[in-house]
Amino acid sequence: MSTRLFSPRCLTAMSLVLALTGTAGAQQATSTATQVADMARVGEEIVVTARRSAEKAVEVPFAVSVISGQDITEARLHNLSETLLSVPGVDINASGGPNDYNVRIRGVGSLYKVSADDNSVVLNIDGVALSTAFLSLGTLDIERVEVLKGPQGTLFGRNSEAGAINVITAKPKQNTEGYVRGEIGQEGHRLGEAAVGGAISDQLSARIAVRYNEADNWVDNARDGKPLTSISDLAGRFSLVWDNGNGTDALLTVEGQRAKGYLNMILLRPYGDHPALDLKPGAFDENKRTAGRYSAEINHDFSFARLTSVTAATTSDYVGWKAYDTVTYQAMYGMPNVEYLVRDSSKETGLSQELRLASLPDSRLFWVAGLLGTHGDLSFDTRSPLVGQQYFRDFTSKSIGVFAEATYPLTNALKLTGGIRQSHESKDYKARYINSFTGTTTPDKRDLSDNYTTGRLALSYELAKDTNLYTTLARGYKSGGISYMATNVSDSQPYKAASVNSLEIGFKTAPVGGNFSLNGAVFVNQIKDDHILKYDSTTFAMSVVNADVRSIGAELEGSWRITKGLVLNAGLSRVNSEIRDNVLGLTAGDIRAGNKVPDVPGWSANGSLAYEGKVSDAGLAGQPTLLNARVGYRWVDSRPADAQNNFDLDAYGEVDARIGLSSGGSEFYLWSSNLFDSKHDVYGYGELAFSDFRIHQLGAPARGRVIGVGASHSF
């Protein structure tokens, strides 16, 4: 159900936001020009921590895409998964649930994600490694997001054979600063966000940020005509920085999120003009996820290096129902008026400790060395009332890694980079498979361990000031494991580890003070033994098989300041990724050598055009009034829905837009997501139906057009 944009409830909510911004606007505020990062960032030096220490992005010998916090805010990228889709060469397969993200970079990633540990891209938030299940986290008070492409196992460790996502949150400062923002829109969209930080003492600073976001599900329940769920997110973060002024500082962070109403949507294609599921109302009311991160980072500068310690604990609890509705179940199994509901629940805790010694910023010789230890416990339980099955699965994983990397200047222009990491992992698995109808319980137990080496070798050449050429050879690795969807002892047979050998050749140019920046790369990845989930729709059994993959492609991205107030950002990706092995005996059809990797488009492009200009000398707090406008576009080529290449998902283009007036730190704006109401799939796959032994197409539609208004104030 849609909520009218200018209903009394909406107008009341917006009046509260305007009251806040109006009160704050009466105070002296910083210039509104700081609200448009696109205008400032072109020509500025971009510093990243892609190699665990600060350095210029143009000097990093592999591709790094950087999305600033201002870009995230103005493009209205509400979570990390939306943010990643703005990066060329990054693709995400997900069915709408908060736990099921499968990220591929340059066509590298699991062919079908088979466990919570089966990640090819590692997520790192403020130095703490997390699984990509945390991509549902909102982009709350973010300084920047760095997307590191190509194997990153040297410095980021396990499960980074395709790349890494490095998220840096906004840190407390001595000066008082903050913001408040609110939005309302169609389909029940509500957003409220605020952050404030400043000095507690000369050595101590704090910052707190909170956000609440809600919206109706875009798929209805056919029985009552209402949205399947109301989706909501509540997130908060508290950060404390201590700096003694003599080379020692510490950062303490406590962060939490509660998400409700997300669900793995499975609909029979085609979806029709008004997608709906035929289920009892309230079937997904229990769906929720909570997550927490608690970390402490301590830094000390010696005369020759910086010592860093990062200690962290993470938690995650999840309950989620997924379903075949009566329409889908009848199509798949020939039985009318049957709902097939499955309840998944999981609890996860993680502990990690990293010690790192690195060269100081601006040192002639860049180097970093360290060690990382992790311990994780995960329970993943499944209950299928219709078939009388219950599965209780417990996983324990431990890892330790020792690493080092250095960049040595062979000449003033030529630099050699070498890095290596030695890792050890062990995994234990215990399970009980219960048949409620017969009363039988089958125990299961597995364990495995692995030792492996990853690393990279790179050569870079400074062609001109702020223009570098580079070539990088890298090896990545993703350890083996046990499927988290095993339903019997044979399903839990450990699957093989996957590895990748990668070659990248590229260039970077970002002249300081210039009007443009441009990065480009060509690459080839050879992946051995990637993972595919083997599902038998007649018995509901799930197991894992392996297959080799190859991806070849090229990327180009850049920014151009066309005029003083007009900036163009654009990216283009070409990826040819294919499966190299035959995989036979799957119920949805055989996978043949030469099949394309699912959900990876051959071509994709994205771009944005941002404008800022003065419309009046009069405004709030003695500041002029500015017009801010931004149009973003993402185009995705057609791509196979599944590894069998049963059918293709259609190409699509999606436009987002935002226009506002700002003055004295305050802004009022109009926005639209999917402005032209593009109809396309979030994901899809083919499955053999027991009813007629044909392949039926399943998937989920993307959200359509949403229009809204917003107001914000920064101080």
Description:
By secondary structure, the chain is mainly beta. It has one domain: TonB-dependent receptor, beta-barrel domain (Maltoporin, Chain A, Beta Barrel). 6% of the residues lie in helices and 56% in strands. The chain has 6 helices and 38 strands. The protein has a 22-stranded antiparallel barrel. Strand 27 and strand 28 (542-563) form a beta hairpin. The longest helix is centred in the first third of the chain and has 18 residues, at 8-25. The two termini are 37 Å apart.
Question: Tags for this entry?
Answer:
single chain, 715 residues, mainly beta, Maltoporin, Chain A, 22-stranded antiparallel beta barrel, 6 helices, disordered N terminus
List the helices and strands and how they pair.
Layout: H1 8-25, H2 37-41, E1 47-48, E2 55-56, E3 64-68, H3 69-74, H4 80-84, E4 90-93, E5 102-105, E6 121-125, E7 128-130, E8 142-149, H5 153-156, E9 163-169, E10 177-185, E11 190-199, E12 204-216, E13 220-221, E14 230-243, E15 248-260, E16 267-268, E17 276-277, E18 288-301, E19 306-324, H6 326-333, E20 340-358, E21 366-384, E22 389-409, E23 414-435, E24 440-464, E25 467-478, E26 498-509, E27 516-535, E28 542-563, E29 566-579, E30 603-616, E31 625-636, E32 639-640, E33 648-649, E34 652-663, E35 666-673, E36 681-688, E37 695-701, E38 706-714
Parallel strand pairs: 6-9, 13-17
Antiparallel strand pairs: 1-2, 3-8, 4-5, 6-7, 8-9, 10-11, 10-38, 11-12, 12-14, 14-15, 15-18, 16-37, 18-19, 19-20, 20-21, 21-22, 22-23, 23-24, 24-25, 25-26, 26-27, 27-28, 28-29, 29-30, 30-31, 31-34, 32-33, 34-35, 35-38, 36-37
